[in-house]
Design a protein that fits this description.
Length: 105
């Protein structure tokens, strides 16, 4: 059995570099893409990026999953995290003693 990720265009390189099979599609093409994968005998797990559910709701995808013998998953969209930059002195202290120290002056 194989696993396939159905993803939007912006994450193509990540899966490709890892050697994992992926199919890029738009939200409008999602249902058709999933149906096509369900017809492939070697596919046992389909993981869909949550951002593709804009037009095809989760309920529609759930209905498709009930008709199939494999596992259909929805992966949550990656959260946009705020990047916190440490100043150079804090980086040196952290490196020297092995853990983060909070200094308040």
């Amino acid at each position: 059995m194989h696993m396939v990720f159905v993803i939007p265009e912006d994450v193509r390189l990540g899966f490709n570099l890892a050697g994992i099979r992926e199919l890029v599609c738009s939200p409008a093409e999602l249902a058709q893409t999933v149906r096509g994968l369900m017809k492939e005998e070697q596919v046992g797990i389909i993981a869909v990026d949550e951002r593709l559910l804009a037009q095809t709701g989760a309920e529609d995808l759930h209905i498709l999953g009930k008709e199939w013998r494999g596992l259909l998953l929805v992966l949550p969209a990656p959260a946009a995290e705020e990047i916190v930059h440490e100043d150079y002195a804090m980086q040196l202290i952290k490196k020297a003693i092995g853990y983060h120290v909070r200094l308040e002056i």
